[in-house]
Specification:
This protein is an all-alpha fold. The protein is built from 15 helices and no strands.
Length: 378
């Protein structure tokens, strides 16, 4: 009994420390990012943010394909020993890097066609340049997965802070000089480079020349539904951007997407601090009795915090818009109010329960749930 109590206390201590570092990094990042966006919104135009939204839509889709669910596999899977974990990490690393480079080259060669599909051939050059960051993202995705698995959130904290400072140090000065969307694109690429450098220096794992097609098949069979769930989630997140981009100009796309991103960043100050830790913890105790108690406790805290925020922003959306963006963004007020209310509900009924399903290794259920959600939104 004492031994069991000791194990539970040790887990609780690990969870608390992880939450402190994860929460600290997310709070710091979510404070810095809105401040940066508030400054940039007063320098650049909604058109500039509309172009960035198109680039990010392409980048996020390719990033899901290249990761193929391997990052979550490294967090969730119970390896027999460190050697098996290292072999899987190497297969993931080389697969991610190879796919990222190949797809980036495909985007560069077909940039005009891709830009035309997304609403304007004038986006072709900026899309091909923006996708460069995929290479840097793929380099450190495995380090991130391994650090989360081992609850090394202090090291992730350092990387997150480094990336969050980039807009203030690079993007804002460039925006003053260029007055164009190139400041946003270069800032994103710079953030990816900084993230890659910091995580590589802080990770004890290093890639080696090893690859196994049999191991790739094994990993992909496990990660397939995770990949499907991620793609469905991407479609939910970006289908509105695609529709707005097709029907309206980049000006209104910027109004819509930047407003949504700001609200998600503010709400994410709470949720993003808990989600990585929640997945790592629940994955380790998925067969233990305290699984549901820990999940429900965190879910209850989220409800008490998020609902008042969502309702408050909805009723005071005009004031919130003035504070966040300034006079040239007045048209965004209704979007900000609606997104705040929707995010508060969505996080509670989907986002956090989704982490429990992932931890249990049944993302298939999430995939079919997201399909019904996509049908509803369309």
């Amino acid at each position: 009994m004492d031994k069991e109590r000791g194990i539970i206390d040790k887990k609780s201590g690990t969870i608390q420390k992880s939450l402190i570092w994860s929460g600290g990094s997310e709070i710091a990042v979510k404070l810095i990012v809105p401040i940066s966006n508030m400054i940039l919104a007063r320098i650049l135009t909604p058109d500039d943010f509309g172009v960035l939204a198109v680039c990010n839509m392409v980048i996020s889709f390719i990033d899901i394909i290249t990761d193929a669910g391997f990052g979550k596999y490294l967090v969730q899977h119970d390896f027999k020993d460190d050697n098996e974990k290292d072999r899987c990490a190497n297969v993931s690393f080389w697969s991610n890097l190879t796919l990222s480079v190949i797809i980036w080259l495909i985007v560069v060669l077909n940039r005009v066609s891709i830009a035309g599909l997304l609403g304007g051939k004038e986006y072709s050059t900026v899309i091909s340049v923006a996708c460069m960051q995929l290479v840097f993202t793929s380099v450190v995705s495995i380090q991130m997965g391994l650090l989360r698995r081992d609850f090394q959130f202090k090291k992730l904290f350092i990387a997150r802070i480094g990336v969050a400072i980039v807009p203030l140090v690079i993007t804002v000065p460039l925006a003053f000089v260029t007055r164009s969307y190139w400041a946003l694109v270069i800032g994103n690429i710079s953030g990816s480079v900084v993230n890659a450098i910091i995580l590589t220096l802080n990770s004890s794992w290093r890639p080696r020349l090893f690859y196994s097609l049999d191991l790739l098949k094994q990993m992909f069979s496990f990660s397939f539904w995770t990949l499907c769930e991620a793609l469905a989630h991407w479609l939910i997140f970006w289908i509105d951007t695609f529709i707005v981009g097709q029907m309206y100009s980049s000006y209104y796309l910027g109004i819509y997407k930047n407003s949504a991103n700001m609200i998600m960043s503010l709400i994410g100050m709470i949720t993003a601090a808990l989600s990585p830790v929640l997945l790592s913890v629940l994955s380790r105790i998925k067969n233990d009795n305290e699984f549901y108690d820990i999940f429900l406790h965190i879910e209850k805290v989220v409800v008490y915090v998020l609902f008042p925020i969502g309702i408050g922003v909805f009723f005071y959306r005009d004031t919130a818009t003035e504070i966040l963006f300034g006079n040239q963004w007045k048209e965004a007020a209704n979007i900000i109010g609606a997104w705040a209310l929707m995010m508060a509900v969505s996080v509670v009924i989907y986002s956090f329960p989704a982490e429990a399903y992932k931890a249990k290794g049944i993302p298939k259920i999430l995939f079919f749930g997201l399909l019904s959600k996509i049908s509803f939104r369309v």
